[in-house]
Design the sequence.
């Protein structure tokens, strides 16, 4: 298993850089991963990250539709906050596994 | 896993058939592209117009006759063709299929197009199909950003790393 150093901590990641242990995550680490992805995190970003982590904890499959229905953020803003591949980028920064969803 | 030297940068998906599964194949692939940061154009033509005409898109149907892939619920065996002629069966089967998709968090067409266009995906209607079915621009859902001739479609489909997909 690969490891990476973020904000002075060593974390376990898979070959694509996704956390294998979400409990190793914290906000300082998120800020550093986001920088790698070219994103400066704001409060709104953190709201989304917390939503994703919460859904991951409860075992809910992550989908764009689920995020839209959450009431935390609409899809358009989600795409703006994490430009390019929003769900992939956001889960990576949130320290949770890559979503296995087609929708 | 992927060929990083030649990534797909744009997909241009043509939806020419109007069964539930045809429309959803186009929507899933288009939305999937947008989710990956790939530019996407969906081009609806002929029976595919079912997916973008306001009055038609609410309850898409699947074929219960001439569809060998159609199996009986629970039994799992192929559905005999003669059952397909029972009045209302097509609506019933189509309704069941829509329900199954909803359970899997696959949204109805109009909501799917909301998600897709929110991510920057574009939807186009075919000029020839519009004329054939005597449709006007106001008959189409607001997600449609233009009515194109085939030549115009090829123009928007151009570019390096661009693919045309006919579903």
Sequence:
């Amino acid at each position: 298993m690969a490891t990476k150093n973020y904000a002075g901590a060593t974390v376990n990641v898979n070959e694509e850089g996704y956390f294998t242990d979400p409990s190793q995550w914290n906000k300082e680490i998120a800020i550093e991963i986001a920088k790698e992805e070219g994103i400066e995190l704001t409060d709104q970003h953190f709201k989304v990250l917390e939503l994703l982590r919460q859904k991951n904890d409860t075992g809910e499959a992550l989908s764009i539709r689920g995020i839209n229905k959450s009431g935390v953020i609409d899809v358009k803003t989600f795409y703006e906050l994490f430009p390019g591949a929003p769900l992939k980028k956001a889960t990576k920064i949130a320290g949770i596994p890559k979503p296995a969803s087609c929708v | 896993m992927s060929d990083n030297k030649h990534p797909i940068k744009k997909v241009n998906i043509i939806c020419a058939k109007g069964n539930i599964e045809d429309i959803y194949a186009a929507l899933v692939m288009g939305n999937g592209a947008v989710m990956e940061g790939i530019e996407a154009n969906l081009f609806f033509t002929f029976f595919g117009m079912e997916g973008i005409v306001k009055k038609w898109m609410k309850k898409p149907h699947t074929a219960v006759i001439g569809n060998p892939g159609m199996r009986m619920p629970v039994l799992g065996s192929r559905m005999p063709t003669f059952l397909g002629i029972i009045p209302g069966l097509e609506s019933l089967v189509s309704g069941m299929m829509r329900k199954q998709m909803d359970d899997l968090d696959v949204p109805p067409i109009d909501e799917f197009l909301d998600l897709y266009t929110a991510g920057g995906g574009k939807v186009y209607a075919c000029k020839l199909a519009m004329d054939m079915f005597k449709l006007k621009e106001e008959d189409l859902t607001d997600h449609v950003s233009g009515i194109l001739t085939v030549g115009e479609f090829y123009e928007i489909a151009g570019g390096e790393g661009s693919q045309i997909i006919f579903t």
In short: Residues 33 and 130 of chain B are 26 Å apart (CA to CA). The longest strand of chain B covers residues 10-15. The first helix of chain B runs from residue 20 to 35.
